[in-house]
Amino acid sequence: MASTPKFLQGVFPFSGEGLSKPALIDPALVYTVPPGTTAQPLYFRGGNSTDELVVVSLWRDGAPMRHFPMGARSGVNIPLRVVEDVDPDSRLELVVAAPAGTAGEIVVDFGLMEV
After folding, report:
1. Which of 39, 50, 38 is nearest to 8 (CA)?
2. Which of 1, 11, 17, 25 is buried most, with the most CB atoms less than 10 Å from its CB?
3. Tell me, what's the pLDDT at 1?
4. How far apart are CA 90 and CA 33, in angstroms?
5. How many Cβ atoms sit within 10 Å of the Cβ of residue 105?
6. pTM of the model as a whole
7. For the chain, what is the mean pLDDT?
8. What is the CA radius of gyration of the chain?
9. How many Å apart are CA 70 and CA 52, to the nearest integer?
10. What is the mean pLDDT of residues 71-77?
11. What is the C-alpha separation between 60 and 92, in angstroms, rounded?
12. Which residue has the higher pLDDT, 82 or 70?
């Protein structure tokens, strides 16, 4: 069976409402697994333009699946060593949490494979 890479990428403005209050970064960072396929998240790369710690989280069907903390004016490259199958029709979203009042831009490069 052939596999197809998919990428959620871009630079997005955001504002923080608190580390315990994540919010969708952008509708472009929502992916629904097509019927008849499964998806496997493979890596996350990100960058944070602010002077604060921010956390990007991968949510599956409204619940956190993985967290990617990024330090102030820093970036991360995280290959996912534990790869899980995500079932058809599951909704994946990338959300961000930051201290209240924090505003900046976040760079996102998230890769997954449709199988």
Report:
1. 39
2. 25
3. 65
4. 5
5. 13
6. 0.94
7. 97
8. 14
9. 9
10. 97
11. 5
12. 70
